[in-house]
Amino acid sequence: MADVLNKKQRSRCMAAIRSTDTLPERIVRKLAHSLGIRYRLHAKGLPGKPDLVFPRLRAVIFVHGCFWHQHTCRDGRIPTSRTEYWEPKLYRNRARDKQRQRELRQLGWRVMVIWECQTKSITVLERRLRRFLVVNPLKSSMPGS
Length: 145
Description:
By secondary structure, the chain is α+β, with helices and mostly antiparallel strands. It contains 5 helices and 4 strands. The chain has a single domain (18-129), classed as VSR Endonuclease (Endonuclease, Chain A).
């Protein structure tokens, strides 16, 4: 199907897409804050500028949009029009994501990715965040932890 918007309309539409402070990101920030865990936002000194950085825990969270980072859910599908444009672009996004996560792990950071679609179930998301962020004092004091 041909694009129903003209070039100027399409440009305005694409310019409105945010890269920071998205609704899914704000949901994750609110949950982390409610757990009493403080964070920094978009640390420029770390590979990939993670959305939330927990320096004390050496942990980072990326909040990925399902479309832009190609999640396996329904929203992560490649558009059927202009596939010659979209496939390489979205493939590069995924490859870059994997590389940045690898770099962070090599630097000793724990990495979590939260997909946009996963922010719809707050209770499940809160459990995941709690497991990732709340350090179990018994486990951390054991040798080899």
